[in-house]
Amino acid sequence: QVQLVESGGGLVQAGGSLRLSCEASGRTFSDYVMGWFRQAPGKEREFVARSSRNGNTKYADSVKGRFTISRDNAKSTVYLQMNSLKPEDTAVYYCAARWDLGGDYYSVRDFASWGQGTQVTVSS
């Protein structure tokens, strides 16, 4: 499995921006699908975005047009740029990884490796 460490969370006002980073180690990063998920208090963990090894991306409808996922294979790092943040974006954000076999991965159960999470709080 790959080890994942997230960073970049924090407190921001509504309308602001944050960039999350997730550095991976242990395996060939470029072979992996990288995903971002989030979990708000009292809610289930939900899909936010993912980046496949061929560069394809997928976003949850709630973040389309506001969030951008990108990856730097040379640095074994995936990013989540979050703009126009809303209070409902408040959650713990998790980075996730799985071996890319070409599927349409966006479920929690699709991903085998998880980071420890980073808190994002958006104030109104």
* Alpha-carbon distance between the two ends: 39 Å
Average pLDDT metric: 96
What is the alpha-carbon Rg in Å?
13 Å
Which range best describes the helical content: under 10%, 10-25%, 25-40%, 40-55%, 55-70% or over 70%? under 10%
Q: Into which percentage range does the β-strand content fall?
A: over 45%
Low-confidence stretches: none
Helix-strand layout with pairing:
Layout: E1 3-7, E2 10-13, E3 18-25, E4 32-39, E5 46-51, E6 57-59, E7 67-72, E8 77-82, E9 91-99, E10 113-114, E11 118-123
Q: Could you characterize what this model shows?
A:
- The strands form two sheets. Strands 2, 4, 5, 6, 9, 10 and 11 form a seven-stranded mixed sheet that branches. Strands 1-3-8-7 form a four-stranded antiparallel sheet, with no helix packed on it.
- The radius of gyration is 13 Å and the shape is globular.
- With 124 residues, the protein is mainly beta.
- The model has no long low-confidence stretch (mean pLDDT 96).
- A hairpin with a 5-residue loop joins strand 5 and strand 6 (57-59).
- The protein has strands spanning 3-7, 10-13, 18-25, 32-39, 46-51, 57-59, 67-72, 77-82, 91-99, 113-114, 118-123.
- It has no helices and eleven strands.
In a nutshell, what does this entry contain?
This protein has strands at residues 3-7, 10-13, 18-25, 32-39, 46-51, 57-59, 67-72, 77-82, 91-99, 113-114, 118-123. By secondary structure, it is mainly beta.
For this entry, give a set of tags.
seven-stranded mixed beta sheet, 0% helix, 124 residues, mainly beta, single chain
